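Weekly modeling sync, notes
Attendees: S.R. (lead), two postdocs, one rotation student

Agenda item 3: backlog of single-chain predictions. S.R. asked that every request posted to the team notebook include the full sequence so nobody has to chase files. The rotation student volunteered to paste the first one in as an example of the format we agreed on. Action items at the bottom.

Example entry:
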Amino acid sequence: MDQDIYGVHRWGAELLTILPNGHIGLRNPMNPDHSAVDLVKVVESLKMRGISVPMLLRIEDFLGYRMKLITDSFNEAIKSLDYQGSYRGVFPVKVNQQAQVIDRIVEYGRSMNFGLEVGSKPELLIALAHRLSSEAVIICNGIKDSEFIQLALMSQQLGFKTILVLESPKELELVLSEAERLKIRPNLGVRIKLTHRVSGKWATSSGDRSSFGMTTTQLVDVIDQLRTRGYLDCLMLQHAHLGSQIPHIIEVRKAVKEACTFYAELKREGAPLTYLDIGGGLGVDYTGEHKSDANSINYSLQEYCTNVVETIKFALDEQNIEHPYIISESGRACVAHSSMLIFNVLEVTRYDSPHPVEISEDDHELIRNILEVESYLTELRLQECLNDLCYYREELRLRFRTRQSSLRQLAKGEQAFLYMIHRLKQVANQCEHVHEELKRSLEDMSDIYHCNFSLFQSLPDVWAIDQVHPIAPIQRLNEQPTRHGTLSDITCDSDGKIDQFVVATGVQRTLPLHEVAEHEDYYLGVFFVGAYQETLGDLHNLFGDTHVVTISLQAQREDGFELLHEQEGDSISEVLSYVEYDPRTLMNAFKSVVEEALSRGLIDIYQRREFIHAYKESMTGYTYYED
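Predicted structure, as returned to the notebook:
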C-alpha cells in the first residue's frame, strides 16, 4: 500500500517522515544525520511521566531551524545579487506570545540579530525583559498612548534599538510631546498604506482599505511636521504591511516594488531612512500543494527571499539610492511548524454497518425493499440505489411518525439501511470514478470520530476562517485505513468539528482513518499550529489550555528526546476563576447544598464526606477527558 496517503512527505518536508513501524517520525533538521525520533514513543513516554493528551507539543529544533532557514535564505540572496545592505529578521510577538516561544526565539535569534515586533504595551514589556543583540531592533506598531511611547523612548537609553512606527499624524504629536519632555531624540518610522491588495484569507489586511498605516496625504503632512519641528533626521524606517499568508509570488513582487517607490520618495524629501520593513506575508504551505491557494503558496522560501531582495535592489538602483537594511516580520513562517496538537479518539459514531439483517415474515414491506436494493447494486446503478434507499427509509420514518409502524420496526429498518450503505460504499470504493454528487452524499454518511480536544480552545482559526492544518494519525500508517470520517471535539456545540483535511491528492471533506479497537489509544496529530492558535483560543464549555510540552530531539537517548519544559494544562478551578468565579465560594456553596440534603435525610454522613471530597477533587482536575 501507499504509506503516505496523508501527504506527510509533501507538507512535512524536511521535518516529518513515516517510520517503518508506521509511526510518524520527527526529523531533526539541525542534525540531519541523526535518525528520526518516534512521535508515538514521545507521547507514550510523556504519558508515563503523567503528562496526558490532549497536549501541545513544541519542538524547539523546528523553531530554531525555521529562523535559521529564513535568515540564511535572505543572506544567500543578498550575496548572490550583490545587495549592499543586510537582513534583519523580526518576530511579531502577537503571532505567539507564549514565554517559552519568545525565550527561544530570542536565544536562537541573538546570533542572527533577530528582533521583535510589538503592538501593545504588554508585548513591549515582554520585549524589554529580553537581552536582544545590540543590532536587533524592536519595532513598535499599533495605536500607542503616552505610557507606551514613554517606555519605548526610555528603552533607547538602555541600549535597545527601539523604533516607534507612526500610524497617523495624530500619533506624531503624542510622540514628539513625550520626546521633548524626556529630552530623548526618538527613533522613528512611518507606516504607509500600499495601494496593491493581495489575495487570500487576509486580503483586507492589505491595500488602501487596511486598518493601519497612513494615506499619502497623511504621510506628506507627517513629513512636513517633522521637518518644521526639527525631527526629520529621526526618521529611519519605512514600514509597509504587504499582507498575510500571501499565496502568489507575483503579488509579493508588486507590493515590494510599490514600497520601494514610497521609500525613494521619502529619501528625496530628506528623510535619512536606513530600514525598509516589508512586514509579514511569507506564507506556509499547509497542504503541500505548492499552488496559489488560501492554504498554500506557489513559491519556495528561497524564491521568496530572492524575489524580495532582487525587487528592492533593482527599484533602488534605478533611483541611485543606497540599499537599506531589509526587515521582514515573518512570524507565521517562523513558528507555525514548531508546534503540534496531539489528542486521542474517545469513540466513533458509524453511519454504516457491516452486519447483515435477517428478514422475517412480520417485517414491514419497506424493510424488505431496503434489503432488496442489493439485488441490483452495481457500479452503474450506484446513484439509483442510493436514491431508493433514502426514499424507503424516509417512508418508514413517516409511518413511524404517524404511528403506523412500531419503534422496533423502525430500528430494524435503520439497521437494514446502514448495512446497505456499507455495501454501497464497498462497491463505490472499487470504482475508478465516482460522480461528484454521489461522492458528496457518501461523505455526508462518513463516520464521526469523537476526539479529546476543544476546537475553540486549541484550533480557533479552523472554526473561524476555515484554516486548514495537516491532520494525520501518528501511528498505523503502514496499515490501509478502512474508514473515512470527520472529527468532532468534546464541546457540546455543533460547530466543534473539522471537515476539511489534507491528503496526498489535495484537500477533501473526510479523513481516511482506521478502525479503533476497544482500549486502544488511537492518536491524531494536528500539525503546524505554532502561529496564532496558541494565543487566540477561548474558553468554550470552559475547556482550558491543554498541557504544553517543549522538547529537544535527542535521537541517541532511549526515548528520543529531552524534556525542556512542562506546563500543566488549566485546572477546573483556574478556568472558573477566569470567568469570575471564586472556587472557594463555590466550594462553600456546595457544602451548604450537601449539608441541607443531610438534614433532610436524603444522604447519610458518610455520603456527605464522599460528595464533598469528589467536588474538591474535581476542582483540581484537568478540564479534558481523563482515563
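Discussion: group reviewed the output briefly. The first strand starts at residue 16 and ends at 18.
Action items: rotation student to repeat for the remaining queue; S.R. to check formatting next week.
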